[in-house]
Write a structure and sequence with these properties.
Blueprint lengths: L1 E5 L7 H17 L3 E5 L5 H13 L4 H21 L3 H28 L4 H8 L1 H16 L4 E4 L6 E2 L10 H17 L3 E5 L2 E4 L4 E3 L5 H11 L4 E6 L20 E3 H9 L10 H7 L3 E5 L8 E4 L10 E14 L9 H11 L6 E4 L5 E7 L3 H11 L1 H5 L5 E14 L9 H11 L6 E4 L5 E7 L3 H12 L4
Parallel strand pairs: 1-2, 1-8, 2-5, 3-5, 4-6, 8-10, 9-11
Antiparallel strand pairs: 6-7, 10-11, 12-14, 12-15, 13-14, 15-17, 16-17
Helix pairs in contact: 2-3, 2-4, 3-4, 3-6, 4-6, 7-8, 8-10, 9-10, 11-12, 14-15
The structure holds adenosine-5'-diphosphate, aspartic acid (ASP) and magnesium ion.
């Protein structure tokens, strides 16, 4: 069995839909059991989210405009690729119903003047619920037996709106119960990515970019032979091609390497995508919809050790927080209390670095979490601050983590040296450094203004560019 996931650009317009139908037909020739997962058409989720936010701020125009733009965008594809009049009319009714409910939702948000995370999940999930029925109809027009399935019927999550966590057991039970019969009838299910529901049936989402995660969850539940992530680049590259145009495909990565890259900002995979694959030992292939026979990346439990560094990535919009003071030396428990306070506000710590002199602890958090973290730390460490055991809690804003990733770094001397000479030559100031004990990653904190140059210089130190 194969699970094929198509991202927003892969279903971005008529040509892309036709290309996707071709790829699915080829997959079906290779394996009779194919499950498709689709994202919303490119730009649609953003449009939905912006319209809902604008409605909460008192603007009705954006959702009115969005309604007609979205109708046009989907109907254009339907009009060009679905010849059968009955099918086209059925899709027309579906999209009309979706957009009417979108308008009703936005109107309520406008009247209330408030947008909750729960409400936003209902609105933002509409994009996949317009794309999956369209793709299924396009496939049928290409002679492929296909049926769209709403993932809310399958993926059961907690109620953490905006980034819910799937509950694996009920999800797998439902995935098998809902999808196996379709596969046994020779049909290809086309499942909505990104969306899910609680066990009470309340709509949730897996977080932005979450369709990759949906595909991995279904792949693990169905014990697929491979999960394929079809996107708009030739697999996972040695760097983001928007920053390093000469970046090249990495043919193979281990799960751990891919997870580190995704976690540290390589947008090509949602950070949680690897988790279900690791447990089920399912290979993940990342390939280009627009160049299906071009280079691609295979993510596996183990790979041949070819090259120490596999890729460079960067994660933006962070704040570095420094807790510093000579009085911290030898005082037990400051680190524990620091991170307890950080955890209490639910902030996600991306990197920690402590100097060996123990005079400071510094860690990076998303910039949006920084004010709450500083407030919590100031309260937790109030006594130490008054007694000057801690001199200050300092925030350095607008920083970026540049991560150098590769399992072969372990036992390869000189990697850190090459990274620092590259940055030294480029006269880029490194604010903090951390190396995980797994040695799969060296993380450097630099100023946001230096981020792209840092990625380019470090990339050039390890890779020849095309
Ligand atoms: P999709 O809509 O298919 O899910 P995304 O936009 O989410 O696609 O992810 C693909 C994009 O990720 C690429 O177009 C590229 O700009 C970006 N990207 C960032 N880092 C990398 C990397 N190391 N390798 C490949 N793509 C990357
Ligand atoms: N459509 C969703 C988003 O834009 C999910 C995805 O594309 O993976 O975030
Ligand atoms: Mg994506």
């Amino acid at each position: 069995m194969l699970v094929l996931k198509f991202g927003g650009t892969s279903v971005g317009n008529t040509q892309a839909f036709a290309q996707v139908a071709e790829i699915i037909a080829r997959a079906r020739a290779q394996d009779a059991h194919v499950v498709v997962v689709t994202s919303a058409m490119s730009g649609v989720t953003n449009t939905l989210v912006h319209a809902a936010r604008a409605a909460a701020d008192g603007y009705e125009q954006p959702y009115r405009e969005a309604r007609s733009d979205l109708l046009l965008k989907h109907q254009l594809v339907a009009g060009q690729l679905i010849e059968d009049g009955v099918e086209r009319a059925a899709y027309g009714r579906l999209i009309d119903e979706r957009l009417r409910s979108f308008e009703r939702l936005c109107h309520s948000i406008y009247v209330l003047g408030e947008l909750t995370a729960r409400g936003l999940d209902v609105v933002s999930g509409l994009g996949e619920r317009m794309a999956a029925p369209l793709l299924a109809a396009v496939l049928r027009a290409h002679g492929i037996a296909a049926e769209w399935v709403d993932a809310a019927e399958i993926v059961v999550t907690d109620a953490n709106f905006g980034g819910a966590t799937p509950l694996i057991e009920p999800t797998c039970a439902r995935a098998n119960a809902r999808l196996r019969p379709l596969l046994d009838q020779g049909k290809t299910p086309v499942v909505t990515g990104f969306v899910a529901a609680t066990s009470e049936g309340i709509a949730t989402t897996l977080g932005r970019g979450g369709s990759d995660y949906s595909a991995a969850i279904l792949g693990a539940c169905l014990q697929a032979d491979e999960v394929q992530i079809w996107t708009d680049v030739n697999g996972i590259l040695t760097a983001d091609p928007r920053i390093v145009p000469g970046a090249k495909t990495t043919p193979e990565l281990t799960y751990i390497e891919a997870a580190e890259l995704a976690y540290f900002g390589a947008k090509v995979l949602h950070p949680k995508t690897i988790l279900p694959a690791i447990e089920a030992l399912i290979p993940i292939r990342v390939a280009n919809t627009f160049q299906p026979d071009g280079p691609s990346t295979l993510v596996l439990p183990e790979t041949a050790r070819d090259g120490a560094v596999k890729a460079i990535t960067a994660i933006k919009h962070l704040t570095l927080i420094n807790v510093e003071g000579r009085g911290m030396i030898g005082v037990p428990g400051i680190a524990a209390r620091t991170f307890k306070a950080v955890a209490a506000v639910g902030a996600n710590v991306l990197m920690i670095s402590q100097s060996s002199s123990e005079q400071s602890i510094c860690f990076a958090v998303p910039e949006g979490d920084a004010p709450a973290v500083i407030q919590a730390l100031t309260a937790e460490l109030a006594q130490e601050l008054t007694r000057h055991f801690i001199d200050q809690i300092r925030a350095i804003h607008d920083v970026v983590i540049v991560a150098v990733v590769g399992a072969g770094m372990r036992g390869t001397p000189g990697i850190a040296g090459r990274v620092f000479s590259a940055l030294g030559e480029a006269r880029i100031n490194v604010i903090a450094v951390a190396q995980g004990s797994s040695e799969v990653n060296i993380s450097l904190v630099v100023d946001e203004n230096d981020a792209e140059a840092a990625v380019r210089f470090v990339h050039a130190a390890f890779f020849a560019e095309a």
